[in-house]
Amino acid sequence: MRALILAAGRGAGLYPFTETRPKAMLPVAGGMLLESALPKLRAAGVSDVVMVVGHCSQRIIQHFGQGASYGMTIQYVHQKEPAGIRDAIRLARGHFHPGETFLLVYADVLTPGNIYRHVSQTFGSFNQPVAAICHTPQAQDFGTVYLGADMRITRLVEKPTERAMGNYVLAGVFVMPYRLFELLETREMDVSLNELSATDGLRSAIWEEPWLDPKHPWDLLRGNRMVMETWREAVVDGSVQLRGAVQFRGPVRIEGDVVIESGASIFGPCFIGQGSFLGNGVLVRPYTAIGANAMIGFGVELKNCVLLDGVHVGRLSFIGDSVIGEGVRVGSGAMTLNQSMDGPTVRVRMNGGHVDSGMTKLGSFVGDGARIGASNTLASGTLIAPHEVIPNHYTYPRGES
Amino acid sequence: MCGIAGVAGSTNIAQRLFRGIAALEYRGYDSCGMAVQRNGTLDIRKNIGTVESVNQNERLTDMKGLVGIAHTRWATHGGVTRENAHPHSDNNGRVAVVHNGIISNYRDIRERLGKAGAVFRSETDTEVIAHLIAHHLKQGAGEFERAFVAALRELEGTFALAVISVDAPGVIFCCKRESPLIIGLGDDANYVGSDFNAFIEYTRQAVILEDGEYAVVTRQSYAVKNLRTEEPVPKEVTEIEWDVEMARRGGYPHYMLKEIYDQPATVQAALRIPRSDLAGVARMIHGSRLAFLGGVGTTYYMAAMGQYFFSRFSGRYLPAVSTDELPHLADMGPEDCLVAISQSGETYDTLTAVRHAKRQGAKTAAIVNVMGSSLVRAVDLPILQGSGPEICVISTKAAMSQAVLLLLSSLELGRLSGSLEEAEVLLLRDEVASLGDRIAETLNERSGFLHTAARQHQRMKNWLYLGRGIYYPAALECALKMKEVTYLHAEGMSAGFLKHGTISLIDENMYTIVLMPAPEEKELHALTRSSAEEVRARGGFVLGFRFEGDEASQGLFSEEIVLPRVSSLLAPFLHLVAGQLFAYFLAVALKRDVDRPRALAKSVTVA
Question: In terms of residue numbers, what domain contains A206?
Answer without folding.
Answer: 2-215
